[in-house]
Write a structure and sequence with these properties.
By secondary structure, the chain is mostly helical. It has 13 helices and no strands.
């Protein structure tokens, strides 16, 4: 057991000390065994849980989930502190300097008219800071660890900033049709189906970008809709004394169409 003074109210400094104690010889054997890679997934999961609290407009849960995200930050920083490379204070120092540098309209004499100009300045300063000399450098800077749809949208957005883009959504839609046909040919044996499917998804993200729709949110909404409709199909089957596993696809499709008709009134 480690010596620790319990308090009525804790702060970030206390969290840093608790993590130090957990990683110390007299602390927790599990915490001591962890490294960056072993807790990498936890970082991702905690972030998504915080996002879900935001989506659900739940401030109480958000407070808790942000604490879990902060714990992950402190955990990674403690691992580095033990290695003598940097501390949480160094992390805070770096991001503070970054915020000051990238907000010259607040901490300097630069004038901006609107939020769009703020973002333009941010991108310009980021490119300078990261020593990005070419448009390709900006594309390659987009993290590969991002969810695929988000990464695709960010890459397309950066390419569009130098003029590599369709004039309007019609060009993006034409590309979707072209890629759909290529998927069909690949399925028939003319090409790699996986590669062509990736091209189709990339083209669909381009359409979403023109429509100013977050592709990740769009697919999440559609997945939720599918689950909602599937539940109604299953309920309808049970009301008819049937199990889905005993029904034909045609019978389930009929129930599905009925659910859609109730939702839209026109069966669309």
């Amino acid at each position: 057991m480690v010596e620790y003074k319990f308090k009525e109210k804790y702060n970030v400094s206390d969290l840093v000390e608790i993590m130090r104690l957990l990683r110390s010889p007299g602390g927790c054997v599990w915490d001591r065994e962890q490294d960056h890679k072993s807790i990498r997934r936890s970082f991702i999961e905690e972030t998504y849980e915080a996002v879900e609290a935001i989506d659900n407009d739940d401030p109480v849960l958000l407070c808790e989930e942000l604490g879990d995200v902060l714990l992950q930050v402190v955990f990674h920083a403690q691992i580095e502190a033990e290695a003598g490379r940097f501390t949480l204070d160094d992390v805070a120092d770096g991001v503070c300097k970054k915020m000051i540098y990238r907000h010259p309209h607040v901490f300097g004499s630069v004038k901006v008219e609107n939020a769009d100009e703020v973002l333009e300045n941010w991108d310009t300063l980021k490119q300078k800071e990261k020593h990005q000399q070419s448009a390709t450098d900006t594309l390659e800077s987009v993290a590969r660890s991002l969810p695929g749809l988000i990464r695709a949208e960010k890459v397309q957005h950066k390419a569009a900033k130098v003029g590599f883009d369709w004039d309007d959504v019609s060009g993006a839609l034409d590309k979707v049709r072209e890629e759909t046909a290529e998927v069909e040919r690949a399925i028939a044996g003319e090409g790699d189906p996986s590669e062509e499917l990736g091209d189709l998804l990339f083209a669909a993200v381009n359409v979403a970008r023109f429509l100013k729709t977050d592709p990740e949110q769009a697919i999440a909404n559609t997945t939720d809709k599918f689950i909602r409709r599937f539940a109604q199909v299953e309920q309808a089957a049970h009301e008819a004394g049937r199990e889905l596993s005993d029904m034909t696809l045609a019978e389930m499709d009929a129930l599905w169409d009925a659910v859609k008709a109730r939702e839209h009134g026109d069966g669309a």
